[in-house]
Amino acid sequence: MRQKGVNVGSEEKPFECGECGKGFVTRTVLQVHQRIHTGEKPFKCGECGKGFVTRTVLQVHQRIHTGEKPYKCGECGKCFSTKNNLGSHQRLHTGEKPHRCVECGKSFAQSAALWRHHKTHTGEKPFKCGECGMCFSRKYNLGIHQRVHTGEKPHRCVECGKSFAQSGALCSHHKTHTGEKPHQCNECGRFYRTSSALRNHVKTHTGEKNYKCLDCGRQFAHSDSLRRHSRIHTGEKPHKCSECGRCFSHKVCLVTHQRTHTGGKPYKCLECGKCFAHPSTLHTHTRYHTGVWPYKCAECGKPFLCKSKLSLHQKIHSRD
User: Could you tell me which InterPro entries the record lists for this protein (predicted)?
Assistant: First the structure.
C-alpha cells in the first residue's frame, strides 16, 4: 500500500494500489479494492455459502433467497432486486440504448449486451466444454450448456412441478400459467411473454440477419439459429437419449425421439380424435379429412399424401 498524491479532476486520491496503481480517497476503500487482487471474499451467505467482497454485495445477493424486490417500475409495476436492474428494465419503456457498437453501429440498452454482441464480430469463445469441446463466449453460457450433459435442472415450477436448467426458462414457463404477455411489438401489436421473444419477432419485420455461418455463408436472424445450423458442419450431437444412447443435434429431435420409448402421443386430430407422436405426422394425417393429396406421380398421375409415399411408388416405374 502506498500513500501518494494522485489527483483525478479536483478530487485527491492519495491511497494507491500497489498492484494496479489505481488511486482511492480513503484507506478503507483501497483495502476493499485489494480483495479483487487477493481473491478474498470475507462475507459469506448463510443460505448457500457463496462469498462476497463487500457486505453490500452480500445483502443484494441474499434477495435471491428471500425474494425481496424493493425497486418498482413506475410504468408497469414490475419489481426488481437491484436498482441497476430496474434502470436497465426502464429502458424498455423509454427506448434508450446508450451503448453503441463501434463495429456495426448497433445500440444496446445494457453494457453487458453490447459486450456479448461484440464477440459476434471477434468470434471470441474462450470458454470450452470439457465433455463435448463446444466453446462459448461467456462462462455463464458454458455453465448452462453443461447441464445438457449432467441433466441438472435446478429451477422448479411451484405450479406444476416441471423443472428447468435455466432460471429464464422457468420465468418464461411460469407465464404459461398466468397468461402474462407484457412485451408488445410496436409494428403489429402482437404480445410476447419475454423480451427476447419480442426481439426475435421484430426481426420478421426488419429482415435483420446479423449472424453469418463462416463455413457456408448462410445468414441467420438469431444466434441460436446459427448455433444449431453449425452442427451440420461440425457433426455435433449434444443431446443424448438416456434410454438407448442415441444422439441428436437438436433438443426437439431428442424430445420427439423419446416418445418412441414412452409411447407419448400429444398431437390430436380435431376431426377424428386420433393421436400422434409428431406434429408432422398429424399434419399429414389431416389430409385424409381435407382431401389434399399434394404429391403427384409424374409418370402415372397417382396422388399421395406425403413425399415418402411418392418416392416408394416411383420405384415401381424405375423397375420397368
Answer: Znf_C2H2-type, Znf_C2H2_sf, Znf_C2H2_type
Q: Note down the domain range covering 288.
A: 269-318
User: CATH no. for residue 286?
Assistant: 3.30.160.60
pLDDT at 320: 60
- Please report whether residue 206 resides in a domain: no
Collect all residues with Cβ–Cβ distance below 8 Å to 161 and sequence separation of at least 6: none
- Cα–Cα distances (Å) from 318 to 295, 299, 309, 314, 315, in that order, read 18, 10, 15, 6, 5
C-alpha span between 177 and 75 (Å, rounded): 23
The answer to whether 177 and 192 are in contact (CB under 8 A) is no
* Global confidence as pTM: 0.35
What is d(CA 27, CA 16) in angstroms, rounded to the nearest whole number? 9
**Residue 244 has what pLDDT?**
92
Low-confidence ranges of the chain (pLDDT < 50): 2, 4-9
CA distance 47 to 25: 34
Q: 273 with 288: CB under 8 angstroms?
A: no
- In the numeric block, the cell 415418402 is attached to 308
Q: SS3 for 259?
A: helix
Is residue 295 in some structural domain? yes
Number of structural domains found in the chain? 1
Residue tagged 405450479 (cell numbers) = 159
Decide if 280 is inside a domain.
yes
H/E stretch holding 7 reads strand 7-8
Closest CA to 98 of 83, 76, 88: 88
- On whether residue 293 sits in a domain, the answer given is yes
Q: What are the residues facing 107 on neighbouring strands? A: 100
